[in-house]
Amino acid sequence: MVSVVASTDLETVLDRTPGTVTAFLEHLVGEPVDAHRRRHEAARADPSNALQVAEGDPLLRRTAVLQGRRSGTPYVYAETLLVPGRLSVRFRERLDSGPDPIGRLLVEEGISVTRQILTGSDRRFVSVPSDPDAASGCLLARTYRVDAEGWPIMVIAEWFLPSLEEFLPV
Predict the structure, then answer these.
(1) What strands lie across the sheet with 58-68, from one edge to the other?
(2) Which of 27, 41, 89, 161 is deepest in the core (most CB within 10 A)?
(3) Number of independent structural domains in the chain
């Protein structure tokens, strides 16, 4: 695990972290984190999208706050657009029924993934928080695509909340 040197280096460290954001976050804050959902709903693909699916294909939109299991402190607000047909039934059931963050599910389900930071028009799919209050004052916002076996499976936008500042060296 790479250590964070300063809050301004958060993005660099996250980009270099080989594991999931969930694992990084748990290491940083010293406690397990759970996803507290705000919304989990069906959606349809736009004509032009970063997920390489046809217009109208079914997608799943999920918003969640990753917060400490013991402290209840919110650390990250995230919005995800997933291609359910590219994920196992078990993954989708766990995503729908439990508090596990996506990163934990990917690891436990043995899904090897890569991340690609999105810029420009590719960020438009989830780059503006649907709940601005949940993401206010964030330390860092970023959007990336997650691929598995060469196929895009989700686009994630994350807002790292001010509560993380106390865990970052000055």
Answers:
(1) 33-44, 58-68, 74-82, 151-160, 140-148, 113-117
(2) 161
(3) 1
Low-confidence ranges of the chain (pLDDT < 70): 1-8, 120-135, 170
pTM of the predicted model as reported, rounded to 2 decimal places: 0.87
Count the alpha carbons within 13 Å of 18 in the hemisphere toward its beta carbon: 2
Q: How far apart are CA 103 and CA 23, in angstroms?
A: 7
Q: Is residue 103 part of a domain?
A: yes
Q: Note whether residue 11 is domain-resident.
A: yes
Which of 124, 30, 138, 133 has the alpha carbon at shortest distance from 76?
138
Which pLDDT tens digit goes with each residue over 151-163?
Answer: 999 999 999 999 9
Look up the domain containing 57 and give its range.
7-165
Does 81 fall in a domain? Answer: yes
Tokens of 103: 């990163």
